[in-house]
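Entry 0007
Protein: Tetratricopeptide (TPR) repeat protein
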Amino acid sequence: MHSEEDAASACAHATALIAAGRLAEAREVAETALETDGPEPTLLLVVARAHMAEDEDDHDDDAERVFRRALDLFPDHVDLLAGYAELCLRSDALDRPGRHARGPVLLERLRELAPDSPQLLRATASTSVLATAVAKGPSAALVQSLDLLQALTTAASPEAAEKDARRRAALAPYDRRLAVLDATLTALARPGRAPLRLLVRRRPEYLFLAQLTVAVLLLARHVLGPFPLWVTCAVVVLLQLPLLALRLLLRGARARGGARASGASAAGPAPAEPPLPAVRPYTRRQLVLIGAGAALAFSAFVTTTVLTHLEDIAYPRYEAAAPYTFRGMTRTDTGDELDTTAASDPSGRVAAAFTYFYTGGSGDGSELAVTASTGDFHDATAAMVYESDTLLSSTPGVGSLDDSWRADAGAYGGWMQCSRYVEYITGEHKAICFWADKGSMGSVSFKASDMSHADVEGLARTTRQTVLLPASSDS
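Output (structure tokens):
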């Protein structure tokens, strides 16, 4: 059986390993001492805290098992009760409701045994979410980034920073933080990585400019005219590439530095104070830059989302203005064409509808019939026109189809498709063109025995622009 001094030495060594981030080794040292010396409360506490320091659910489960085993043996040990209370109170009440509920019970027991003890104060502070975050400290990635920024900004050159980090890491090979800094500076010192070193020193400024660029691109689509959204997405990806390259480099350096520190054999326990200074947070200016960039990008995203929605639901307004005569033909009025469809439309999307016939002409382009509806068709699509087989099959008089093609919709925009066919009753060759935009849809048909595609399209566009006029802003 070893002496109490051996157990105390093993506890001190394991505690120093926890401080150096070598958690698995700390557990191994403490568990070996437990196997040799038997149950000892401080060693059991070290094992539990080494599990808690991993900050993972599985290790939290292991820590709870150690605490429960230890308290079965030492039910009134204040440090064990305080440590278990911290674990329970910091657990998620939804994921681990039983564990979280044990926290107040353990606190009450601590108040009975040690009402004014520092252990009780520390455990009580664990009920604060902010205290939990502070207790965990900055992440390894943040510590690495800030150490790297400090080294590059204070050294005379990147080479000098690398040389100093290598010297300090050699003096304390067990120190994970120094080993990670050394590995990071070594990786950044390689040829061609000057842009990444600049990104380290100017990351807040780069993030601000990147977010400002994205915001400008999002708003430019509505100010300068629409351009493909993939252009903005491509720029975002390109702006992320340097950050991704730096992130991968830092992650690899953390892994190499951590492995080197874990494999190093220290001559004795790790020093109480790390050789590097405390981690310095970002300056106020840097935080303002990062926050301003994020706010700009978020505001631009919200604005472009709203504008896109408004553009999607917007539609042009038209007024029916079919002239009495057109191309030498006379309009036939039946008296009830206008608004009959609008009155029967239950959705309320059709503002007006009409069908007019023009007769009295001769040859191609005569005996013209035009049917149109105006209203809110903001969700109209090209398929409504280009997939016109259904429209043709429901059009009276269409016999054999000669050909169909997509036509230029003209100044009003939207989509147009024309077809030439033989009317099955009269045997005449005719043409019909369907159009649609977000404010109107309709068709025009006429004689077309010898008309070319261009002539058919031209007459259809002229008819559309004659019978429909853009509504005045005050109408």
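Curator remark: The radius of gyration is 39 Å. The first strand starts at residue 318 and ends at 320.
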